[in-house]
Write a structure and sequence with these properties.
The protein is an alpha/beta fold. It has three helices and five strands. It has a five-stranded mixed beta sheet, covered by helices on one side. The protein starts with 5 loop residues before the first strand and ends with a strand.
Length: 103
């Protein structure tokens, strides 16, 4: 079963944008994810991507995050014991983005 991807964007008082993501980020939803990241980056110097409700992240999503990290300061928020954490570490995305764990 494929979960729909839902992305909500808020602007923080410090000028950063927070993208709260729920669902699966895969080859089918990655264009929507990439578009949301690019739109937010055009007017925000820093992006915070809250992945605590993301159920899945594949290489297309990782590529979108790497591309975003080239153009803006990127922070990823993960849940404790998230299944996405090993994907972030194996891809070395943690070397170009700040990783935070929300308890």
């Amino acid at each position: 079963m494929v979960d729909d991807l839902h992305i909500h964007v808020d602007t923080n008082p410090d000028g950063a944008a927070t993208l709260t993501v729920a669902g699966e980020i895969d080859m089918h939803s990655a264009p929507q994810f990439r578009h949301a990241l690019a739109q937010a980056a055009t007017s925000h110097p820093r992006l915070i991507v809250d992945l605590t409700a993301a159920a899945y992240l594949d290489s297309a999503g990782i590529a979108a995050l790497f591309d975003s990290a080239r153009h803006t300061e990127l922070e990823l928020i993960l849940g404790p014991g998230s299944l996405i954490t090993p994907v972030i570490e194996i891809s070395k995305l943690d070397r170009v983005a700040t990783i935070s764990v929300r308890q």
